[in-house]
């Protein structure tokens, strides 16, 4: 999709990467049942066509979704984050704080390019949040927390605890030093996913030790690059990784 393409929602102009987020925002809602009825092809060359054949826009899947979930996708809220100003907020944390507890609507936080050094947490009482960046100039979400400072699972750059979280076009990085075998508490998690029914598309998740804590819940990763050295994917989540 051309990211310059724009559409109107409730009188607000939204850019291409936000339109893309709207399309995929609920692409995982019924993904697990679909997988059961339509097994993933053994031939890798057929996987992309299989995926595109079962994941449809909300309007095409309305009858298969519960009325509550269809309502969630009606009139989504768009929040723009720009470090240089011009958006509603200049940090991701402030944008998340603006989402009310008990949120019942799709909230798309559109993050403009830049490096955001923040320790980000989306709490359990704020479901239906999507973080989306520009695929041609993905924002960097960075922090340098370590297990020595916070404990392993809380050393994380980005923690998602809320259901129906979606991350799109993001670099999620823990910039703590590479462990040398002597450092105590050198584990440094980039992403911890404790939320249920969450998905990540075209994200780079980078660290050295314990990069991705796939903690609990059902998760979906597509077209993601996950890099580390030791235990770079760990946890008790039930997840599907494609490409």
UniProtKB/TrEMBL annotation:
The chain crosses the membrane at residues 20-36. It is an enzyme of class 3 (hydrolase). GO terms for biological process: cell wall modification; pectin catabolic process. It holds the Pfam family Pectinesterase. It catalyses: [(1->4)-alpha-D-galacturonosyl methyl ester](n) + n H2O = [(1->4)-alpha-D-galacturonosyl](n) + n methanol + n H(+). It comes from the Eukaryota. GO terms for molecular function: pectinesterase activity. Residues 80-240 form the Pectinesterase catalytic domain. InterPro entries: Pectin_lyas_fold, Pectin_lyase_fold/virulence, Pectinesterase_Asp_AS, Pectinesterase_cat. Keywords: Aspartyl esterase, Hydrolase, Membrane, Transmembrane, Transmembrane helix. The active site is at residue 231. Pathway: Glycan metabolism; pectin degradation; 2-dehydro-3-deoxy-D-gluconate from pectin: step 1/5. Its EC number is 3.1.1.11. Belongs to the pectinesterase family. This is Pectinesterase. It comes from Gossypium darwinii.
């Amino acid at each position: 999709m051309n990211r310059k393409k724009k559409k109107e929602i409730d009188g607000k102009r939204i850019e291409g990467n936000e339109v893309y987020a709207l399309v995929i925002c609920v692409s995982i809602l019924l993904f697990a049942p679909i997988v059961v009825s339509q097994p993933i092809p053994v031939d890798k060359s057929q996987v992309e066509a299989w995926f595109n054949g079962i994941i449809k826009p909300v309007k095409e899947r309305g009858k298969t979704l519960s009325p509550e979930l269809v309502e969630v996708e009606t009139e989504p809220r768009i929040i723009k984050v720009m470090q240089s100003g011009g958006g509603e907020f200049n940090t991701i944390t402030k944008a998340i704080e603006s989402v009310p507890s008990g949120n019942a609507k799709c909230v798309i936080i559109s993050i403009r390019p830049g490096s955001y050094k923040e320790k980000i947490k989306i709490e359990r009482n704020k479901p239906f949040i999507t973080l989306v960046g520009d695929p041609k100039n993905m924002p960097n979400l960075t922090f340098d927390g370590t297990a020595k400072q916070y404990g392993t699972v809380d050393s994380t750059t980005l923690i998602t605890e809320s259901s129906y979280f979606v991350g799109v076009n993001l670099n999620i990085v823990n910039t703590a030093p590479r462990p040398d075998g002597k450092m105590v508490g050198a584990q440094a998690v980039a992403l911890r996913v404790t939320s249920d029914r969450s998905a990540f598309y075209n994200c780079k998740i980078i660290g050295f030790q314990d990069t991705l804590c796939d903690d609990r819940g059902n998760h979906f990763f597509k077209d993601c690059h996950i890099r580390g050295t030791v235990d770079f994917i760990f946890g008790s989540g039930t997840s599907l990784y494609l490409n």
